[in-house]
Amino acid sequence: MSEPWTPRRPTALLVLADGTVIEGDGIGAEGSAVGEVCFNTSLTGYQEILTDPSYARQIVTFTFPHIGNVGANDEDVEDLVPENSVGAVGAVFRAEVSAPSNYRSAGGLDAWLKSRGVVAISGVDTRALTALIRENGMPNAVIAHAPDGVFDRDALLAQAREWSGLVGLDLAKDAASSRTEVWTEGPWNWDRGYGAHENPNYTIVAIDYGTKRNILRLMSGHGARVVIVPPDASAAEILAHKPDGIFLSNGPGDPAATARYAAPVIAELARTGTPIFGICLGHQLLALALGGRTMKMHQGHHGANHPVKDFTTGKVEIVSMNHGFAVDPASLPSTVEQTHVSLFDGTNCGLRVAGQPVFSVQHHPEASPGPQDSHYLFQRFFDLIDEHRATRSAA
Ligand SMILES: NC(=O)CC[C@H](N)C(=O)O
């Protein structure tokens, strides 16, 4: 007699704090991870997305159905300290992850996810999950992977419910490098790969709240020597490097929590008249330093296909986005001008300070992954630095 048929056990679960349990096939790290679930609409760049430190304590649902087919490589890692593996804690995929076309070792995406400690689930109706997030907002959840299919569902639900969520969490200190270092990779060059810039024209101090590598590459490509400092560096430490410009990086967590120590430093730096450029968390922190407010968004913006209008030129750019908090433009003082806006929902996407070389954007102009429409913002930063230098030498 043949064995009675037994249904296949799910080897992964996504347990939402509202009690919804989504079953699927586990891949990547075993065990469980708690975080906030968001959806990302990018068509490419899963490796850059999962290694973006801004995704710390988040579980990314990919709306693109087929993830993992080009494997993983060392060039597409975005976090500065890959050994720390700061980035998304979990990933949700529609299709089963098939054999990749490329990976240095056997095992493909599964091995790579494991090496970074990312717990992933495939075989999920990501369309339904995305619709649920659009309806109810980004839920707290636990993602769990057990190859033997044995789960304590009540304990996982309790863990999802007990987690206090991203609001109030400063994660920049976990995501950022804790020491000062000079970026030595230089810009990417198709002919010779990476290489330090031989004759830098500028010194940029990048305050690292969880920066992405491509931002540093692009600044380096503009001829800058980039000094990376920890998120809690003092204004005096930063100014000691004699920066031509100061960069405020992207990063994870609630900007209002990080602002407790970051905003006073940024406010002090802004008073020196040194050109400042902020991206994403850096934009939010600048707004807070200038006296503005930030708020949690309903479903956030995560993707590489978001239309943003630049009021200063009237142009629309298609941009890369990854944020769950936003600047309330009504909270900004009258000396601060709103320069960019999301054409999806009208939320603030940029600011500049009247009469000062200080500006920032909510989106990700380094676009890794994403379209490169907003690369001009790096040029804008270096143009401001040149203008600032010219007025100083004329004085
Ligand atoms: N990419 C980022 O810098 C994200 C900023 C912030 N953590 C947010 O979610 O809004």
Question: What's this entry about, in short?
Answer:
The chain is of the alpha/beta class and 395 residues long. Helix content is 25%, strand content 29%. The protein folds into 2 domains: 12-162, Glucose Oxidase, domain 1, CATH 3.50.30.20; 172-394, Rossmann fold (3-Layer(aba) Sandwich), CATH 3.40.50.880.
Written account of the structure:
Residues 1-202 are annotated as: CPSase. Pathway: Pyrimidine metabolism; UMP biosynthesis via de novo pathway; (S)-dihydroorotate from bicarbonate: step 1/3; Amino-acid biosynthesis; L-arginine biosynthesis; carbamoyl phosphate from bicarbonate: step 1/1. The structure is a single chain. It is built from ten helices and 19 strands. With 395 residues, it is an alpha/beta fold. It folds into two domains: 12-162, Carbamoyl-phosphate synthase small subunit, N-terminal domain (Glucose Oxidase, domain 1, 3-Layer(bba) Sandwich); 172-394, 3-Layer(aba) Sandwich (Rossmann fold). A ten-stranded mixed sheet has the order 8-12-11-13-14-19-18-17-15-16, with helices on both faces. A seven-stranded mixed barrel has the order 1-2-6-5-4-3-7. It has a two-stranded antiparallel ribbon with strand order 9-10. α8 links the parallel β13 (245-248) and β14. α8 crosses α9. The longest helix is centred in the last third of the chain and has 19 residues, at 376-394. The radius of gyration is 21 Å and the shape is elongated. The protein starts with 11 loop residues before the first strand and ends with a helix. The mean pLDDT is 93. The chain binds glutamine (GLN). The site of glutamine has 12 residues, from β16. Glutamine binds at residues 54, 250-253, 255, 280-281, 322-325.
